[in-house]
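Q: Joint fold for the lines below.
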Amino acid sequence: MHTSREFFPFIGLLAVISGVAIYGYVLQLTQGLGVTGLNDVTIWGIYIVNFIFFIGISHAGIAISATVRLMKLHRYHKIARIAELLTIVSLAMAGLSIVIDLGRPDRSYLLVTQYLKRFKFSPLTWDITAVGTYLTLSATYLYLTLRQDFKLLSERFTGLRGKFYGMLIPLYEVGEKATIDRLSFWLSVTILPIMVMVHTTVAWIFALLGSRPLWFTAFAGPYYIVAAVASGLGSVVVIAAVMRRIYHWEDIIEPMVFKGLANISMLTTLIYIYMMMAEQIGALYAGPEAEFLVSYEWIFGSFSGLFWGMTTLGLILPFAFLLWQAFKPGYVHIEGSAVACTILVIAFWFKRYMIIVPTLSIGIQQVGIYAPSWVEIAIMLGAFAIPILMYAIITKIVPLIELEEEETH
Amino acid sequence: MSSVILGLTQALMNVASSESGHVAPLPLGYLVVGIIWAPAVVLFIAALVGKPRQAKITTVFFGFVAIMVIVFIGAVFGLSALLGIFY
Amino acid sequence: MTKSNRRDFLKKVGAVGLFYAFNKIAVDYKNVGVPVLRQSTKVQYKDPVHGANFGMMIDVGACVGCRRCQHACRLENNIPDEPSNMHWIDVYEMENSTPITAVESIPPTGAVLDYEESPKDDHWYLSFNCFHCENAPCTRVCPTGATYADEDGIVLINYDLCIGCRYCMAACPYNARRFNWWDPKHETSRISPVDGSVVVLNEEVPLRTRGVTEKCTFCVHRTRDGENPKCVEVCPVSARHFGDLNDPDSEVSILRETERTINIRENLGTRPKLQYFTRGVKWNKDGEKS
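A: Joint structure:
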């Protein structure tokens, strides 16, 4: 795999963004969380939105891998690893987003040392359990399926590079593929319910607070999971389309793969719009005072610009395009799908913002005006630049398409 | 197991009582963490008893899981130590 | 530019940038405000009073909104004036027509937090702090166990275990908790707006750093020695009452039995121990109708 000329300025740009983000974070560490726009009423803002967003994106990887394996949808096999890598990277960024939000991150170790005392009661502890288990098993799945490729790479390269790949496959046994396949099968099967629990516990962080209007709801788990599938698969569409173009994998990743992923993203977006409508009609029609107030502000009041912009331009418009594409059999417009999915993913970020901020700012009728500060925005841009940086560098080392496939083309 | 039942019963009695005094919340975490880990337990059993099975690969599997757990916890402690210089 | 020239140039730019960033960060770090008299970090509260269950009752009819409780609390509990205008007690001004329980949340529509004069005609005042709930949602959700309900019913925070996640603040239905968004800048002594006296830092109350949550502690350093909280002591109209709910002869127990008490947001099941009552008229310190 050669490195193109455009690679280095791109990396340079990402490095600059990351640098500014790190500077902003150091400011926050030395001066306090006051450098953000947060206050005693709106206690959570962009950092928590990022957290939920990244957890949502992380659902793509194993959903695709598991589905491919269990339903034998071999067409999607090629992009499965891209998706798995996305899972690992976005889970790491989710964890980092939470640490960035803490007032005393130097005490993060307490989350581990106090685990046995708090796992009985705290949804945050449940979330750490689920995310930790999910990350561990996803990484295990990725590693087991990579062993074959590392073996091929260790044979293809001589010298230091070959030795490096050789070190990554300890206890390699010829004929291990059958065992690995069986273990991968079981991993796929068991990771799926854990994946559901991951986003359910994340949803519960907000939904188990009885005092918060529009947060305290029974269907919070499915609500967040539907958004996760839509935004996660949308992200895979975008990333796969970009990589297909950059690395010239036009023959390896067939166009209908994008249609299939975009279709599911579109369907889950439709389900999500339906859920949003049900939630808002309920709150406006019969909600207790605070719920009515927050919902009113969403639809007609101070948050209505953001809400309607996100819903119409961000959700309905891409949905319409993807629906039109779905109805044309055998037809897929990859660039169009990638653009539509990019818009969807960004809209879902704003939807998470709509979930977090209005309920806090006005939900207890004590207004805490929240406007993100430059530090928060810089850190958020860094939170996206750093995984892209990680992704770009990892793909130099780890083959994204399983090597046997690439070799036969 | 019996201590779990005992704990749950005591918690239930505490919640249901109308006497003043601090109410102990139900330890629902047992249930939630149990649900989260149940598939993982199934996975580990499948890794140990299924066929085809090779001792080396089983070692690699559990070894990698163990390494990930250690890395995860180590990262938390390392991050705490690193950020400690600011406080 | 040739490739190697460009690379050298970039390296130089990078080095200068790093140098500049490092200096900026180092300078900022050195200039972080160090709180005056930063105590050692072992947070220790006095031993709980066994068998007690402390509670508070506030006479809404008597409160004139003078905010002496708010100021006295700040001085007593080492809450600095800078940089954030934090107070553990808030007082709302409401129109007479607003009933106390008509609200789903605090405060009701039309409530004013930053009124300048009081008492006004046709208005009443609601002061509140942490309710020290018996079924507190905040202690349930804390991921490190930093906040907890002690044996005598006081909900406390161990500032050494708090990681500043603010989950307890999200859980509290009463918006009773405050966060240290900045480093608190403590003055060695301040002039009290209550009576003009000079007040020094209270050594019995631990100082907090940036990044942790704090709230009313029912003046745990006073009440576990048998005194009243400071807010109860300074109220000029005796609106606030404190005591042991398990003691049938305490002020609060008697008030509970004899007056019509009101809980805020009781439907959430928090079982708050800060309760309200009103005799309907305003009383002065000698217990006479004004």
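Q: Anything notable?
A: Residues 3-30 of chain C form the longest helix (28 residues). Chain C has a mean pLDDT of 82.
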